[in-house]
Amino acid sequence: MKYHYPRLVELIVCLACLALISLSPLLVDVDHWIQAFLFRPEFKSWLVAPDERGLLHLVFYRGPKLALVLAGLGVVSWLALRSWVRGWDEESFNKALCLLAMVSIPIIVGALKGATGVSCPVQEWQYGGDYQHVAIRDQLMHWRAAADNFHCWPAGHASGGFALFALRLWHVPGARAGKGVWMWLVPGLVLGWAMGLYQMARGQHYLSHTLATMCIAWIVTSAVLLIHEHLRAAEPDGFRRL
């Protein structure tokens, strides 16, 4: 149990942060305070137009999505070829675990987006929209059926970037599973926040939406690392025989 303690603490902290982000009324105020810098009320326009489809959209929206999909397909092909040539070993298992976590993060976030019924800034009356603000806190306190067009919590687009947190699993180093992997959070943090901030500038999400996505991605990878460490500690010979 001592070996798993740091990963367990990490998981608990991430869950606590997600709960705080979801329930704290202070985050609602922070969301609106930050969004005020991204919306010009005199022109009823956002820092980046929601319907903008130029270079910024290519760099921060379509480009990262396409790159992540192509990279994922490339890794799947490489893993299949490697396993065919060299057999299914512990390294193949780690790589497959990484891919599984990477794919799971956008799926989990997408499912939550479809079910939580939270509004986007661009839809709300204070930003020129037609609807009253609905935060995840409102839904958790007084649940009501999700409106057909309220799919904004957590931030879906940023989940593709934060899915790179799964790189922590790519470099699980054998008997030292889960150690020395903090540096592999950096690509996910950089790309996740670049994609998330772009969506905030378009009025598609609040800060808390993106923070929630980051926490969910962190929770998924922490949980998978914890399970991996537990299995390795319980059946070390089994891992060597993969």
Describe the structure.
This protein is mainly alpha-helical. Helices cover 64% and strands 2% of the residues. The chain has helices spanning 5-23, 25-35, 55-86, 90-116, 136-141, 156-162, 167-170, 186-201, 207-234, 236-240; strands at 39-40, 45-46. A two-stranded antiparallel sheet has the order 1-2. A hairpin with a 4-residue loop joins strand 1 (39-40) and strand 2. Helix 1 packs antiparallel against helix 9 (207-234), helix 3 packs antiparallel against helix 4 and helix 6 (156-162) packs parallel to helix 9 (207-234). The two termini are 24 Å apart.
Indicate the percent of residues in helices.
55-70%
Distance between the termini: 24 Å
Q: Give the class from helix and strand content and strand pairing.
A: mainly alpha
**Poorly predicted parts:** 174-178
Radius of gyration: 20 Å
Strand order in space, largest sheet: 1-2
* Anisotropy-based shape: globular
Beta-strand content estimate: under 5%
Q: In DSSP terms, counting alpha (H) and pi (I) runs of 4 or more, how many helices?
A: 10
How confident is the prediction overall: mean pLDDT? 88
Number of strands: 2
Order of helices and strands: HHEEHHHHHHHH
Main sheet overview: 2 strands, antiparallel
